[in-house]
Amino acid sequence: MAQGVVYMFTNKLNGKMYIGQTIHEDLRIKHHLYAASHPNTKNEGQPFVQALRKYGIDSFDYTRLFVTDDIDDKNELRRILEEKEQYYIKEYDSVNKGYNMTEGGGGMKGFMLPPSAIDRIRKANTGRKLREEHRIANIKRFAEIRKDPEYIRMMSERMSGEGNPMYGVRLFGDRNHNFGKSLSEDTKRKISETKKGKPGHKHTNDTKKLLSGLFKGVPKSDETKKKISASLKGKESPMRRKPVVQYTKDGVFVKEWESIKEAELTLGIIHVSESANGKRNYAGGYIWRYKSECDKDIPPLVRPLNVRRIAQVDEKGTIIKEFNSIREASKELNLKYSGISNVLNGSQNKTGNNYRFIYIDH
């Protein structure tokens, strides 16, 4: 069976305290005194040892703060002592107002190296490089630590809320260190040189789809649309710089855009290029054509598009159903586009399925 104690040394001259715990009380006190009277021991840098050396043991009062019962299980005894040590260190604030270097409990929480020790470590490591095997071993060791659930929980708690160094920090506007600054041509050139020959980041197809749909259907205010339009005027899009014309589904002119990019960003839509290339009927509910493919001699407001309404009729010419285009009829009736087109232009009277069609918009 063993008994433990949490003790406190108090400096009579300045009121500073040192709190510790042990199961060998007399031996622990002797260790403190030995370290104070013998320089260059492993406890040399401890503030309490330095204080004992400076003021002498007679300048300190010794107090028992807590004494355990006799306990058989040493692990349980240690647990109780560490818990009580942490309690009293916090109670007396002996890290900030005393000689304790940590918050107790056998750990290093709250530990801060003295400036002299930091300086010695800095000098010893200046110019020193780890061997490759040590560097790789350290990387692997840290990678394993980061997978530890306890480490993840600890870091999550430490970095949450006010524990996060960026908590409440706003770096927008004039609070940003680059606010109002413009890069010099020399700086731009240097940045450009560092990027040359380096491949850019490549997204997977799934990521590309995700990114392309982020702002699909998101409405933009008139002010935002004006800003986007103004920012793109006079600039060429490296990939989609061809001017396009926007029409309603009925072929009525809406607007001419300097580029596909400008139209898509301003309206918050996609697939404009596919509509302009004829791969898709509409984009964002509109028909799109490249400006270079439109008849420039016809005023935009009356410019017709090659989209004509048709109707399916019976042998007597009675309309059975109307369609907005040949393509629409082809899809709905499961007929070949060419078959319907041949009937409409007079090459044949009816399709192979005995369907007849006529134009109804002229």
UniProtKB/TrEMBL annotation:
InterPro entries xrefs: GIY-YIG_endonuc (IPR000305), GIY-YIG_endonuc_sf (IPR035901), I-HmuI_NUMOD-like (IPR054307), Intron_endoG1 (IPR006350), Intron_nuc_1_rpt (IPR003647), NUMOD1 (IPR010896), NUMOD3 (IPR003611), WH-like_DNA-bd_sf (IPR036388)
Location of the GIY-YIG domain: 2-101
Keyword Flavoprotein in annotation: no
Protein keywords: Endonuclease, Hydrolase, Nuclease
Sequence segments annotated as region (Disordered): 180-207
Compositionally biased region (Basic and acidic residues): 180-196
Gene3D superfamilies cross-referenced by the UniProt entry: GIY-YIG endonuclease, Winged helix-like DNA-binding domain superfamily/Winged helix DNA-binding domain
Record GO terms (molecular function): DNA binding; endonuclease activity; hydrolase activity
Origin superkingdom: Bacteria
Name of a matching Pfam family: NUMOD1
Family membership: To endonucleases of group I introns of fungi and phage.
Name of this protein: GIY-YIG nuclease family protein
Organism name: Parabacteroides distasonis
